[in-house]
Design brief:
Layout (H helix, E strand, L loop, with lengths): L1 H12 L4 H30 L5 H14 L4 H12 L7 H15 L5 H12 L5 H11 L2 H15 L7 H13 L4 H9 L7 H5 L8 H14 L10 H25 L3
Helix pairs in contact: 1-2, 4-6, 4-8, 4-9, 8-9, 8-10, 12-13
């Protein structure tokens, strides 16, 4: 556009000179080249917005201040785990969508999926601020159940990678979840020689009485009634976790011959 304007302006300003028109044409072309990259950048930003950490937390606050449920909280943490290993897998996205549809029913909409995309596309997820907010709003039992859900996302492709484990461990720390609870939930997704001990939060050299005591404590701590106020899918996760505790105790009873 500026090529044409420059050519016309140069022609008349330099006494209707052909050389003036040519000079103006080149000046206009230079201006066009300067403007073109800016337009392309604006177009790309219009199609895909990248939130900064501060902008993303403001976006998070706006959504959670108007919602009484945990959708945005779950979405933010889900995105952090999904991004952990540098790629978002379809099986992980399907796991999250299935959970949300069963958990929130008709309340789950394309608006929530857009929110998930915003978190996934962001430059940085402000986990410290988000986890601090979640810790203030939720009970300890709910936060431990959140951990179980996050491990479920990581395990959706069949294996929990080291980077995913690091992110979940960081989230657990920021949420104020004890290392004992973290190792317990982790043990439900990792099978090893000491997994059953970890699920119950005890060492491999624990006595029979210590195993029984740990089981009773965990059975109370992880009982589904602790998160009875949550949705159906959340209850399902709590029941699965409670069953893992039962399975760990049954395994140890067989191995050690506990009556």
């Amino acid at each position: 556009m500026f090529k044409l304007i420059g050519a016309v302006a140069g022609y008349f300003l330099l006494n209707k000179s052909i050389s003036g028109a040519i000079f103006g044409f080149f000046i206009g072309g230079y201006i066009d080249n300067l403007i073109a990259p800016s337009k392309a950048t604006n177009s790309q930003q219009g199609n895909k917005r990248h939130y900064s950490a501060d902008d993303l937390f403001s976006y998070y606050q706006q959504r959670t201040s108007s919602n009484t449920d945990f959708t945005t909280m779950l979405i933010a943490l889900s995105a952090a785990v999904m991004r952990a290993d540098g790629k978002v897998l379809k099986v992980e996205l399907d796991y999250v969508k299935s959970f949300f549809k069963q958990q929130f029913g008709p309340q789950f909409s394309s608006n929530h999926l857009q929110a998930l995309k915003n978190f996934l596309d962001s430059d940085d997820i402000p986990l410290e601020q988000i986890c601090r907010d979640i810790q203030m709003r939720t009970k300890e039992e709910v936060r431990v159940q959140l951990l179980h859900y996050l491990f479920g996302i990581a395990k959706a492709d069949g294996v929990v990678s080291e980077t995913e484990l690091m992110v979940i461990r960081r989230i657990a720390t920021l949420l104020g979840i004890s290392s004992r609870d973290f190792e317990s939930v982790k043990g439900m997704f990792y099978r090893s020689v000491d997994s059953d001990f970890k699920v119950l939060g005890i060492e491999q050299n624990a006595t029979d009485d210590e195993i029984k005591k740990a089981y009773r404590m965990m059975a109370i701590r992880y009982h589904p009634d602790k998160v009875a106020q949550m949705g159906e899918e959340y209850q399902k996760g709590a029941k699965e976790k409670f069953q893992k505790v039962q399975d760990a105790y049954d395994n140890l009873k067989k191995v050690k011959g506990i009556k």
